[in-house]
Request: fold
Amino acid sequence: MLKGIHEECGVFGIYSSGETDVAMQTYVGLYALQHRGQESCGIVVNDSGVFSYYKDLGLVHEVFNKDRLHQLGEGNIAIGHVRYSTTGNSNRSNAQPLVVRHVKGPMAIAHNGNLTNAYELRTEFELKGAIFHSTNDTEVISYAITEQRLVCSSIEEAVANTMKKIKGAYSLVVMSPQKLIAARDPVGFRPLSVGRLGDSYVVASETCAFDSIGAEFIRDVRPGEIIVIDENGMRSIETNLGDKPHLCVFEYVYFARPDSVIEGSSVHHARLKAGEYLWKEHPVEADVVIGVPDSGLDAALGFANASGIPYGVGFIKNRYVGRTFIQPNQTERTNSVKIKLNVIKETVKDKRVVLIDDSIVRGTTSQRIVNLIREAGAKEIHVRISCPPFINPCYFGTDIDSKENLIACRMTIPEICREIGADTLGYLSVESVNKLAENSDCYFCNGCFTGEYPAPVPKEIPKDKFEFKIKKTDR
Amino acid sequence: MLKGIHEECGVFGIYSSGETDVAMQTYVGLYALQHRGQESCGIVVNDSGVFSYYKDLGLVHEVFNKDRLHQLGEGNIAIGHVRYSTTGNSNRSNAQPLVVRHVKGPMAIAHNGNLTNAYELRTEFELKGAIFHSTNDTEVISYAITEQRLVCSSIEEAVANTMKKIKGAYSLVVMSPQKLIAARDPVGFRPLSVGRLGDSYVVASETCAFDSIGAEFIRDVRPGEIIVIDENGMRSIETNLGDKPHLCVFEYVYFARPDSVIEGSSVHHARLKAGEYLWKEHPVEADVVIGVPDSGLDAALGFANASGIPYGVGFIKNRYVGRTFIQPNQTERTNSVKIKLNVIKETVKDKRVVLIDDSIVRGTTSQRIVNLIREAGAKEIHVRISCPPFINPCYFGTDIDSKENLIACRMTIPEICREIGADTLGYLSVESVNKLAENSDCYFCNGCFTGEYPAPVPKEIPKDKFEFKIKKTDR
Amino acid sequence: MLKGIHEECGVFGIYSSGETDVAMQTYVGLYALQHRGQESCGIVVNDSGVFSYYKDLGLVHEVFNKDRLHQLGEGNIAIGHVRYSTTGNSNRSNAQPLVVRHVKGPMAIAHNGNLTNAYELRTEFELKGAIFHSTNDTEVISYAITEQRLVCSSIEEAVANTMKKIKGAYSLVVMSPQKLIAARDPVGFRPLSVGRLGDSYVVASETCAFDSIGAEFIRDVRPGEIIVIDENGMRSIETNLGDKPHLCVFEYVYFARPDSVIEGSSVHHARLKAGEYLWKEHPVEADVVIGVPDSGLDAALGFANASGIPYGVGFIKNRYVGRTFIQPNQTERTNSVKIKLNVIKETVKDKRVVLIDDSIVRGTTSQRIVNLIREAGAKEIHVRISCPPFINPCYFGTDIDSKENLIACRMTIPEICREIGADTLGYLSVESVNKLAENSDCYFCNGCFTGEYPAPVPKEIPKDKFEFKIKKTDR
Amino acid sequence: MLKGIHEECGVFGIYSSGETDVAMQTYVGLYALQHRGQESCGIVVNDSGVFSYYKDLGLVHEVFNKDRLHQLGEGNIAIGHVRYSTTGNSNRSNAQPLVVRHVKGPMAIAHNGNLTNAYELRTEFELKGAIFHSTNDTEVISYAITEQRLVCSSIEEAVANTMKKIKGAYSLVVMSPQKLIAARDPVGFRPLSVGRLGDSYVVASETCAFDSIGAEFIRDVRPGEIIVIDENGMRSIETNLGDKPHLCVFEYVYFARPDSVIEGSSVHHARLKAGEYLWKEHPVEADVVIGVPDSGLDAALGFANASGIPYGVGFIKNRYVGRTFIQPNQTERTNSVKIKLNVIKETVKDKRVVLIDDSIVRGTTSQRIVNLIREAGAKEIHVRISCPPFINPCYFGTDIDSKENLIACRMTIPEICREIGADTLGYLSVESVNKLAENSDCYFCNGCFTGEYPAPVPKEIPKDKFEFKIKKTDR
Reply:
């Protein structure tokens, strides 16, 4: 709501040894992953090869009611997806999982990430007679797997061959009549973990989904690895395409839930560390440290702990947010941020305030927030941002505002400081960012800060090539 | 509601010389075709190659509200579809028109009919790597056109080549970025007509759609003919596959609206003739002739006119029918037919009644209706049916109940008469049916009566091959 | 849709000797009465003095789904209502039945009609401290009954005393914890009948509701009569206020369903008679007689039978009408009537046509219909209207357009004939109208034609006095 | 969701000097008060004496969309309400504001609180002929004001007289054609404040509503005070019924938003103090202090600050809560609390944890939460509750679980400690609670802890007397 950066998606899958209510478990799992995508969601249940699905625009609790869950029936495998759109317009036909039938039977796919050669692959398939119903990368992946499936003896072999062909970021969950398959791209841009719930196996974008259904974390899927779960249990296929993970740094800074653990490191802990490093890099004398809810709060606590400056609660965020909230027109008197975020004056009045946020995108929201604190009587406002300025596009599944809109592309840090009305402004350095995942063998994709990406980036894509305009529904 | 036979679909298309509200015209046209399919509907608008669409389960006035029509925007071409399902489950993903993108750009297809070689074609395409999102024939047709489009210089050539490949019944409307194309199968099983509205051209399953938007009928599309409408106006491509039309006789007897004209013959007139022939074949002494609403009314009037027996209004049908009406459980006292259909006792009390209906499927509804009239005091009840008994399956787009359920497969006419409680029972002969389209060069497909079809019928199809169970929404 | 006159409401009540699904029976009964009001509806179920209810804007099958009916639970008494608004705005708070609690317990009331002294009574009660939630007459009646209930030993006595106080038209159904009460105003403006279903008693505005649930008609409630149904069965209380019924003539001509029987006379038969009298009063040489659906059809058949001119089907009405249908903007080419009503050209082409309708309100619809037939090739068009011109307001529950809009207030009959484009025009005379209910002891309120009413009419009412504007919901 | 205690309502009113979008301002204000009631809401707009309203079950952003706000139109006065039900069932007819018409014109009322003599008053009015549509206290208040209005020269005088008659807790907003009136009961159980926005005056249950629309806080309405706002501005009427405020202590502890200021004291500050006092009363040696979101967080920070034990983030609460979320059935493995609340293991593993919550109702939720932390590896768990045990009913608008369910009525503190699985358990003392509103002249109603109430409490009320069962809608 308040940000200009967005995650693409969350994926979930479950394989149960018997017929159970896998639809309900997927529902609960998707609910825990809701923060990764609020635009649409879907669940596919596999009952001995018969696939039942439902997907639509809306939050998990809006799209699924008791009747709809019930209609999905029982089964022993299910996959689910929550989506925020990057490639492909926001409409019902882009909702995932994608359910298709090829010559070997039905297949369902849920995908988090962004392919960098989707355009080339799409054209290649079209020249062989393919037709596309959506503008999703997922449909491209479906064709790639299908093509391989015709010449491979198993779905997992088809997925393995497909991974040689598709480039970019992907954390995939694929369901065939007999198997649940999870695959992560060779760079490991997006998280993907495996867990266990009794005799069942579970895969999910984040470990918080395991906690919600009472499952136990086993391990992360490795970059370039394929996990196959079937009646013989779980086994791993190494494509040898992968290397050390280079996770999108925003997963730690912004996207993931603090209670998730990625590549062995707690997201909450990483954010505490971000606050600690911010203090080391940009110390300041102050009376209170406050964070912008929700993702700035942990770093604020880390900053407070490291600095000895008291931690305070500076804002209350209105929790009754709904997609249907009507924004009043702006007038000189109103500040739309106030509707979502109110200052606790008590905390900041007559104080020197350190204000921690996770990013500055266009600058307008930061300006409004600084202004709110100023109006509430703060004497000084020292803004600290728990990541470096981002100045480059992301090709791997994060939807950052266009370059013209990024304030850091247009201004120096002192200029930004002036623009947003702060007394001082400090960004976390790239060096510190690289140390966030403590005690982990995890590297980061820092491309949006540095322009250096851990995988080839595409030449300019004729974006409109993909589009056939599809209207949003008004639901 | 009261019948066990159903039409598959209705199609509509409009090509305007300028940007106009083609969405609204399609909306009104589909509303006029609503009787051909009440399960789902959709509209696609083409604005200089940008396709906007919306489709969902529901009646035309339920699916489209002002916002949704508005969101479709203006354009110069549009196509629409209303659907009742035969092949393919009842769900949103089977709603038409189908909108896809192939290598030459977007394409939208609306289809009325049933292919007899869909299974073979589907397998053929799957073996080349095709994936299917639905269980529609329309998706098979899309692949066929796309395959041809790769080697043909125009969409119309691709459609022409596709017509050599697909078998069975089809009245198609295809939209490319520049063109509106209408095509009818070589046998002409389903109706398809062309009209004009000022500078615009219109195609529709029935002429009543032209009347509703104020368009003028030009002519029927001929069996095997392709009509192409683009900036150069309208032209015809003859595939030379076609012959004299062999229209599904149920179009006259039951499906089409009486105000439509098909192959030069008024549907209302054909039904009057059916009544007239019924009288000639099965005369009876009686006091009043009544019809079962709505499709039996015209034949009843024809019977009355021919016989001199007074025409009467025997039933009132409750018009506030909705898909969401809750059927009460049957008890010995209730008769579910009563909720929809009430007898006007005045008309039948102490009378010898001739009761005209268009068909007897399972016999249970006929039995209930006869019973209603008997309870209302009729002295004699002489049932006359305006078509022959049907005892064979339809492969060309009519959804008739399965053979086990067809009363005429299990009983002789005297047995049926006894079963439904009538005093006498007479069916129209095949000979008379063949004369219904007076002054027209139209022949009929009488396969459901005679077992002789005007085109090859498929061997037994493994129906479940196509299915991946998809749940109905509860809307 | 096509008319400017509307009925106010329909009422239904059932008393069962045991706990049964009275909600479902009321649902089916209201569905049969839906033609009397399509704006809102409601059902109240009485389970041993606990009243459960649900009401909302919409048709019966829209407002009630399985869950809602189920939530109403079982009971032994229920009442229901369908409403079109006359007094009181169109909104949810005016939906009936009204459910209130007074000092003796809960009470529910459903009302069809219009009080002529509502304003005076309202003011009288307000001066005693009453507050009003709605602009319904029904709320006024509730106060009147409640006031009496404080001094009477029974609810029926309170209703009897109330009937001395309230003036105008009312057919009431009242439910107390123990009793179902039906009451009809002393003039009998609106119909109200009693029936039996096994051990249960049923009351309804029209007998077609009895047929729909399999109940048997007993008799009409007499003007000024109160029917009480409780554990001792059914009994009658005569207030001695009533006389011979003076039914609103529009009940026969337009509102009631043809399959209903009112005051011993079939509605269908009355309409056939109207056609017969029309022929006698305004004979004409012609080739075919057609009626405007639905209410003109019976009179057309009566005209045809009497005259010997063949009866024809001139129009097809689109049955998929929904409140949500979007009217396209009028252009010179379009004729909005065409969307709902299409001519069967075959029937009228080159013919001299007698066109029967039940009324002419503003004249615009008649003009369009005549024009449709003219365009379809009719040689002559002779319009016959099955009631006299109406030129006076109705104070008793029929919503006629305002006087300025009534064409008969502005023009002579020859002028109207010219205006609507007919060759000749004939209205039924008041004398003939008075003979419509053959073999019945029923008189008519003809006030809208003659200005002579069977009960005092109010002085001008300051209409806005009642209003507090309440917005329509957009459902 | 996780608690068994509920606030009743929130009220809002605005008086503008000119015609403005008072509907939108009320919408934003109610959105800020949403935490006070999530069951239903409503807005009434006054345009020169014409009242337009809409209300329904649902959250503010669910009930009001753009169309509905637009339909309310412009006006110069508006009031609004959010509701959680205590007296009166959960249904649409109990939604507020109540809009009625009495002899002097329309009146709208929004009410927060609970009358203790509602039953007597209701009976008194019923004996004078009153009818009730709902089971709301608000309807009783309407009758009381109306009765006075008949003999008083102004609405404010009528309200003043009414305040002598009604007993219990109430913060009222009343709108007449010309005036906006706010009134608070003589004890001041519930908060009510006045603010200013340019030339407009605003009243609201909490000051956070002022912040959301950019209004400025003026002062609290005093106990027993009436505020009248009309074209002459704002003036105060002192009924002399009131005394020092005795605010419901739960407003500080649980209900109110931390960013609100009540009786001069910041809610956030009061909660920090609660934590501080908890430390003083129940010190413990520990490694981390965590709070249960959301209302335990502030007290946890206060405890941490006072004790020097580090503050930690122990839980993540899933924010995508919706009324429609489907609870899975409990199994031995699942813990429904996990779906809403997940532990950050990092924070508690191998630590001695102080866990702060605001209350223990039944004990089951506390037990589950303690268990979650134990499973996450906490060595010791010391539960501290920021209010005393409650063991008495509330008669003034807080909906506490029934006495049988209150764990503190059944067990001693050591027993509760054992039951919930904590190592130690400490409740805040009543003495400390009384000091929460620092520097304020505010006293508290502590009846639920002490059994001593600042106003008379009613004898046992025959609860069912009021009820006529009204079914919930399934929306």
About this structure: Chain D has two domains: 9-255, 266-318+338-439. Residues 9-255 of chain D form a domain with the Glutamine Phosphoribosylpyrophosphate, subunit 1, domain 1 fold (CATH 3.60.20.10).
